[in-house]
UniProtKB/TrEMBL annotation:
PROSITE patterns the record matches: FN3, IG_LIKE, PROTEIN_KINASE_ATP, PROTEIN_KINASE_DOM, PROTEIN_KINASE_ST
Binding residue positions for ATP: K252
Gene Ontology biological process: anatomical structure morphogenesis; cell differentiation; intracellular signal transduction; positive regulation of apoptotic process
Pfam families per record: fn3, I-set, Pkinase
Domain of life: Eukaryota
Residue span(s) of domain Ig-like: 8-97
Protein name (database record): Myosin light chain kinase, smooth muscle-like
Annotated GO MF terms: ATP binding; protein serine/threonine kinase activity
Species of origin: Callosobruchus maculatus (Southern cowpea weevil)
UniProt-listed InterPro entries: FN3_dom, FN3_sf, Ig-like_dom, Ig-like_dom_sf, Ig-like_fold, Ig_I-set, Ig_sub, Kinase-like_dom_sf
Keywords: ATP-binding, Immunoglobulin domain, Kinase, Nucleotide-binding, Repeat, Serine/threonine-protein kinase, Transferase
């Protein structure tokens, strides 16, 4: 035992350097040798450690343990242990490094408004990264008064982010969390409250998106269902509010009993995913339940076009009709460029964006189809008064089929009369097949020749000879600059037309349901 003799009288060995996560326990264990039994002292940064809630020290029989519980980032550092008795003393140490989520970003985020529905949020980095590098930030927002914080972006990789889809007129606050491999920090201080600008209407606006069907339970958690907006053959449409943003949407609930019903809705979703145009209703989300599918669409606050133009506070002139028909042609021209045919163009499916503006939106793509020029399609559906001759005779349809319906809509808008309407459907179909109509009614006395020419170029039996939507846009009648008359059109007949259509719609719904 020669070695032992060279060793000092007191020896302490032991504790290992340790890495731990916030909240963990750390045990530093040292062994010592020496008689008589020495006093053991653990210190950190010159301060003697004592037993307390989080710290316990036990020593005896040549072993001393320091147990640190529920550790925090502040517990990182060097831990010294010294043993001492009358014969001598010895010291050693170990390092503890504590890793955890980062500290919150310093200061509060800065907000700069970009539009009535978007702001740019900018923030600072965290003073301490938690021992692991920060790899992103979570940006959260709160609609003031709701008390709910939701993520606007879960993986921001820079120190600024543009938040879209906010509600015009809404008041919002923002905060940020820094994230590393071990988790997210506590939130930063909140930004100042920002008041979004008002938009001049309440129709919803949002970024175009590709919609995938989500589980129906999601719909219930994300939206609150409000009043009914309308009914169609296939669905009921309700106004809904997205709880997170307070934004309004329209949700169409479609009963699906069979797989075929579901496929039809899926087709409608696929078509809407293809159509990105201001004049065409946009889809925001879709959900499926065992017996029903829900399509969440942008909310259109202006109501159906025809109802708007017969309202007491609206005076309808031919120039208004030009402005409306032009927009219908713009939307339809876009669809046709994508090789999509609407196949259900009728007054109920043309809506006003807001009560105040002249802007329209085409809705309801439930019958729309993508056309393959090499594959003739025949269909057996539509709304009697608006369907073209080729559907009645079960001949191939094409994008030109929509142009016929546009001719009918235009005829009705200007006169309040339905050009092919017979006493029953078979009479109506016979009139359509013969392309039999005229402008004899006195309602046309005040309608310009250009308007009649426009209609005549659409209500043509052979679909190949009808004006295309693109050609319509170049037609002399659709150039509002060419039209200077301000004769007010009587809407008495149009009112009767609407009442009759409503009655028929209710009747049809009952038949199907
Ligand atoms: P259809 O019988 O015409 O095929 P449908 O069952 O496919 O009808 P839609 O035409 O899409 O249903 O909607 C029915 C009615 O609901 C519309 O005529 C309109 O009044 C209202 N509506 C539809 N979409 C919206 C919307 N996005 N915003 C406001 N109201 C809407
Ligand atoms: Mg409809």
């Amino acid at each position: 035992m020669e070695d032992a003799e060279e060793e000092p009288a007191m020896v302490v060995r032991g504790p290992q350097d340790t890495t731990a996560l916030v909240g963990d326990r750390v045990l530093l264990k040292a062994t010592y040798a020496g008689k008589p039994e020495p006093t053991v002292r653990w210190t950190r940064a010159g301060r003697v450690l004592k037993n307390d809630e989080r710290t316990s020290i036990t020593s005896g029989d040549g072993v001393s343990c320091l147990l640190l519980q529920n550790i925090t980032a502040d517990d990182s550092g060097k831990y010294d242990i010294c043993v001492e008795n009358s014969c001598g003393a010895d010291c050693t140490y170990a390092s503890v490094s504590v890793e955890g989520p980062p500290d919150p970003p310093s200061g509060s985020p800065c907000i700069s408004p970009e539009s009535p529905t978007s702001v740019r949020v900018t923030w600072s980095s965290s003073p301490y990264d938690g021992g692991r590098c920060v790899d992103g930030y979570v940006l959260e927002y709160c609609l003031v008064g709701s008390g709910v914080w939701a993520a606007a972006c879960r993986q921001c990789h820079s120190l600024s982010h543009s938040v879209r889809g906010l509600t015009p007129g809404g008041r919002y606050a923002f905060r940020v969390r820094a994230v590393n491999a071990l988790g997210a920090s506590r939130p930063s201080a909140e930004s100042q409250v920002v008041q979004m600008q008002e938009e001049d209407d309440e129709s919803s606006l949002f970024e175009p998106r590709i919609v995938h069907i989500e589980p129906g339970l999601e719909f219930v958690t994300r939206y609150e269902v409000l009043e009914e907006l309308g009914k169609g053959r296939f669905g009921v449409v309700h106004k809904v509010i997205e709880k997170r943003s307070g934004q309004k949407f329209a949700a169409k609930f479609v009963r699906c009993r069979t797989a075929k019903d579901r496929d039809k809705v899926q087709d409608e979703i696929d078509i809407m995913n293809m159509l990105r145009h201001q004049k065409l209703l946009q889809l925001a989300a879709a959900f499926e339940n065992p017996r029903e599918m829900v399509m969440v669409m942008e909310y259109i606050s202006g109501g159906e076009l025809f109802e708007r133009v017969v309202a007491d506070d609206f005076t309808l002139t031919e120039k208004d009709c030009i402005l409306f028909m032009r927009q219908i042609c713009e939307g339809v021209a876009y669809m046709h460029r994508q090789q999509v045919v609407h196949l259900d163009l009728k007054p109920e499916n043309i809506m006003c964006h807001t009560r105040m503006s002249h802007e329209i939106k085409i809705i309801d793509f439930g019958l729309s189809q993508k056309i393959d020029p090499n594959k003739p399609i025949r269909v057996l559906f539509g709304t009697p008064e608006f369907i073209p001759p080729e559907i009645i005779s079960y001949e191939p349809i094409g994008v030109q089929s929509d142009m016929w319906s546009i001719g009918v809509i235009c005829y009705v808008l200007l006169s309040g009369l339905s050009p092919f309407m017979g006493d029953n459907d078979s009479e109506t179909f016979a009139n359509i097949t013969r392309a039999y109509y005229d402008f004899e009614d006195e309602a046309f006395n005040t309608v310009s020749q250009d308007a009649r020419d426009f209609i005549s170029a659409l209500l043509v039996k052979r679909k190949e000879e009808r004006l295309s939507a693109e050609q319509c846009l170049k037609h002399v009648w659709l150039d509002p600059e060419n039209h200077h008359q301000t004769v007010v059109l009587s809407t008495d007949k149009l009112k009767k037309f609407i009442i009759r259509r409503k009655w028929q719609a209710n009747h049809q719904v009952r038949q199907v349901a």
